[in-house]
Amino acid sequence: MAIARVRAVVGGVSGLPGLSTFYFHIAGTSVTAAEANDVTGRVRLCWDAFKALLAAGTTVLVQQGVDVLDSASGALLAKGSATAAPAVVTSTGVGELPPATAMGLRLFTAVVIGGRALQGRAFLSPLSTNAATAGVPSSTAITAANAAGAALLTGATGSTCVVWHRPSIAHTGGLAADVSSVGADSAKLWVLRSRRD
What we know:
The longest helix is centred in the N-terminal third of the chain and has 17 residues, at about 35-50. The mean pLDDT is about 95. This protein has helices spanning about 35-50, 140-150; strands at about 1-10, 20-25, 60, 65-70, 75-80, 90, 100-115, 115-125, 130-135, 135, 160-165, 175-180, 180-185, 190. The N and C termini lie far apart (about 35 Å). Strands 1, 2, 3, 4, 5, 6, 11 and 12 form an eight-stranded antiparallel sheet that branches. The protein has one domain. It is of the alpha+beta class. The protein contains two helices and 14 strands; from the N terminus they run ββαββββββββαββββ. α1 (about 35-50) runs antiparallel to α2 (about 140-150).
């Protein structure tokens, strides 16, 4: 089955740029302009819903290009593009928490693989100072993160947000499972590390 990969570049403050990636089921093995417009628009709406909790000066640029991957192998099948570049999301937040801290968003599915429920994670960062109260996510941040996740779930086409389980030695191949619901981690802030940490 084919999935569309949408990437967003997060920048504007020290320690960035960073990359945020989301995946969507699409109808065929290439992405139509309508599908590309839809999925890039949803990712932009996700970040836009959270912009008041992003550190001052943060910008998020959703890439206009959309890659189509085979969910079983990870092979690139096709490349497509939205008809116009999504508008840049600019933070309206104030101040900045330590750069590695993030608001955590869980992406739940109904699929079980290897005896465990398949779920994805999205890191929303860098955070403004009002994103935390006494070291835990503020009620404002939790509400905004849930709204950001909800923006991924509905759109103008039949495309569905998915969690992609990549191919691995332990399993026969990759698979993509539809996201059934989203939920912000209200108990703690997450730590986002680079691959070099």
